[in-house]
């Protein structure tokens, strides 16, 4: 049974793409067959995993009835890791989606035949617009990265409200798998303070594994390799392998 | 003559709010009368400058014809610095705006009577949606913060295309005041590489002053004070004062 997971947080730059790519890659290194669906028009996850400019994308998947998931899915250089790439055309699709009767369900319709994938991860843009709503409607679980900075806590309540509304009206399967603390800087008291606040506010929902700030994580996208390939002995790689173990645990 | 400046970049978490608040505050410390307009539904700039929950906001300004700028503008604790606060209602306003004939000009209509302000800075959300389009249509200049990380370069061409389109059809006054490199980490070669790439790609358009990564900048929002008040001797405060000098220079 394929498990579908959305990575979402409308706050920008909190590590959604970093988490989506590196958690998916870590699970694929444990021999789970994993698909990454890039639903962000910025196409950062696509750029992270491939140097090529894909022919078709999730934009076609959402807007053209005849396009199926296998028509756009690419094999990556990394075993057991496939990619449904994004393109800049997706930002126009967001506006066009609003004219469709089934505007929230476009992605869900296309993620039905997932033979052979153990996990599907969906990267989303920094907003609670129709692209993120499509991801949350199509998924079974959502993981929320929270940067260990002051602003990061602000929007989480609104995000959880949106998740609850979607669960009630659009997708009864949806649950919050957990919160992951990202860009944790051991050298500053700020990270520790935010960690305590988040663990108290969302008791029992926060992964034990914390993703540290690590320059290798900032470098790996330019090498188009996930951290476990680019810098396997880095603190970033170790953290993601631990997170993957905790995720399947 | 009031100069109106939008801070924009659809990439999330690149330091838009940090730049908007701290550049505005630095200019107000030079005795320029400065207004900050928060057009981001996350209301991070509002949270940065005030502990109170404002009564009315830029949501009312955009959606209610009878509400004027002075009805929502607040004095802050910082001399010469006023705030037109945001609220979460602004995210719904973005959808409602799309039904208005003059959808791109709602903010411009309200920023006509700016008596006594030397500068108006507008903070925008991480998207090129109608809120950012309203900011770019109302402004004379746009400043683009670019984080010195790999993904940061990706979206700038699309942003510049949007600025050109708005300049041609909606706002002939609009020009790019410049690009500011943010979150610069002297310890890593990544920042240096991105800086060289950006300065070569946008020759002559990049401010000399670079904003360094500085934990005091990450801490100052939780104290609801701009960096020049919270930590006046920090590298962050010095950088913003230099940027402000370069900006007026
Ligand atoms: N733990 C980390 N250590 C160092 N750099 C990181 C870390 N996590 C992410 N980054 C870098 O920080 C930047 C922001 O991360 P990322 O792009 O993953 O955030 P995002 O939430 O996906 O952003 P957006 O809201 O634009 O989609 C990127 O340049 C990324 O490479
Ligand atoms: N130079 C810096 N040094 C350290 N921390 C910084 C710096 N600039 C910004 N930050 C912190 O990094 C985070 C992201 O910055 P900020 O919120 O200003 O970006 P943004 O582009 O406005 O994000 P969004 O896309 O969500 O609007 C914030 O927690 C902020 O306090
Ligand atoms: Mg992203
Ligand atoms: Mg912001």
Short characterization:
Two copies of one chain form a homodimer. Helix content of chain A is 41%, strand content 14%.
Structural notes for this entry:
The structure is a homodimer of 249-residue chains. Chain A has 249 residues and is of the alpha/beta class. Chain A is 41% helix and 14% strand. Chain A has 12 helices and 7 strands. Chain A has helices spanning 16-29, 44-49, 58-63, 69-72, 90-97, 106-110, 130-138, 156-169, 189-201, 215-219, 227-230, 235-248; strands spanning 3-7, 34-38, 74-75, 81-84, 119-123, 141-147, 175-182. In chain A, strands 3-4-2-5-1-6-7 form a 7-stranded mixed sheet, with helices on both faces. In chain A, strand 6, helix 8 (156-169) and strand 7 (175-182) form a beta-alpha-beta unit. In chain A, helix 1 packs across helix 12 (235-248). The longest helix of chain A has 14 residues, at 16-29. Chain A starts with a strand and ends with a helix. The A-B interface holds A 10-14, 17, 42-44, 47, 88, 91, 125-129, 147, 149-151, 154-155, 158, 185, 187-188, 190, 215, 218-219, 221-222 and B 10-14, 17, 42-44, 47, 88, 91, 125-129, 147, 149-151, 154-155, 158, 185, 187-188, 190, 215, 218-219, 221-222. The structure holds adenosine-5'-triphosphate (2 copies) and magnesium ion (2 copies).
């Amino acid at each position: 049974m394929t498990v579908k997971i959305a990575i979402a947080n409308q706050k920008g730059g909190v590590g959604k793409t970093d988490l989506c790519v590196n958690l998916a890659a870590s699970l694929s290194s444990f021999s789970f067959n994993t698909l990454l669906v890039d639903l962000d028009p910025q196409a950062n996850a696509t750029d992270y995993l491939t140097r090529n400019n894909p022919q078709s994308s999730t934009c076609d998947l959402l807007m053209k009835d005849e396009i199926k998931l296998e028509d756009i899915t690419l094999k990556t250089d990394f075993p057991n890791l496939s990619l449904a790439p994004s393109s800049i055309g997706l930002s126009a699709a967001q506006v066009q989606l609003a004219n469709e009767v089934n505007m929230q369900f476009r992605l869900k319709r296309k993620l039905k035949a997932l033979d052979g994938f153990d996990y599907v991860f969906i990267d989303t843009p920094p907003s609670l617009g129709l692209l993120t709503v499509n991801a949350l409607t199509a998924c079974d679980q959502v993981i929320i990265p929270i940067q260990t900075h002051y602003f990061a806590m602000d929007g989480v309540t609104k995000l959880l409200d949106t998740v609850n509304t979607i669960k009630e009206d659009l997708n009864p399967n949806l649950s919050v798998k957990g919160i992951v603390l990202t860009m944790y800087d051991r050298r500053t008291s700020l990270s520790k303070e935010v960690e305590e606040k988040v663990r108290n506010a969302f008791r029992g929902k926060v992964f034990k594994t914390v993703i540290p700030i690590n320059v290798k994580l900032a470098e790996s996208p330019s090498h188009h390799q996930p951290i476990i390939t680019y810098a396997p002995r880095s603190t970033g790689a170790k953290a993601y392998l631990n997170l993957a173990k905790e995720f399947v645990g």
